[in-house]
């Protein structure tokens, strides 16, 4: 009897990404990953992204689901809603990726393979392990801010990962259940840190595979002052809110 490939659901939060979304779906379809699904989580985009997602759900090259949210309350809330839906719909592996084309879809097969062949609980698409890179057109101050953010987070939480703020990840469904993804409180980039911290606390393995992170080509960045402030405060909140994290096993 032929075994069924694990269900892989890519959760893509969107807000004003009508131009990028069809491109992402086409790229994912071209990756030829067996049993691949996309779940678009749209926060009532005024540019019609939700309608574009509905069209893709009807006639896209791979299965596309759409979760329409009426309140725009942050990236973290969108991911929690999407991941919770993906788990309820039977996903075995959940991929989180941005809608701005900064995350290379060609890395997903390696991320999925790493989950399948190692003891990794989550695999990060990492800019800062050997072979990884950031966009060449990033200005120096943005590169410095990203490097400082990773140093800052690791100094406080001792995650021992190269790319602690990475937003491109592949999760075992059981990992998301174990860390109680529905209970994650952070938003913005701090959401990524809290997810890693919850994984480390439970002694589970984080693996990293190299990616080249590209600058968005269409749309506008969602970074705000509130997101930056939360990102600075959340590591301290996590550090002093409970038991110290257990040593993690991290593999690059």
Automatic annotation (TrEMBL):
InterPro entries the record matches? DPM1-like, Glyco_trans_2-like, Nucleotide-diphossugar_trans
Keyword tags: Glycosyltransferase, Transferase
GO terms for CC? membrane
SUPFAM superfamilies (alphabetical): Nucleotide-diphospho-sugar transferases (SSF53448)
| Positions of transmembrane segments | none
- Superkingdom of the source species: Bacteria
Q: Which Pfam families match?
A: Glycos_transf_2 (PF00535)
Quote the EC number.
2.4.1.83
Which residue ranges does the record assign to the Glycosyltransferase 2-like domain? 9-168
Transferase in keyword set: yes
Name any Gene Ontology BP term: glycolipid biosynthetic process
Catalysed transformations (reactions): a di-trans,poly-cis-dolichyl phosphate + GDP-alpha-D-mannose = a di-trans,poly-cis-dolichyl beta-D-mannosyl phosphate + GDP
One Gene Ontology term of the molecular function aspect: dolichyl-phosphate beta-D-mannosyltransferase activity
Stored PANTHER family = DOLICHOL-PHOSPHATE MANNOSYLTRANSFERASE SUBUNIT 1
Q: Which family does it belong to?
A: Belongs to the glycosyltransferase 2 family.
> What is the recorded name of this protein?
dolichyl-phosphate beta-D-mannosyltransferase
What phylogenetic lineage does the species belong to?
Bacteria, Bacillati, Actinomycetota, Actinomycetes, Mycobacteriales
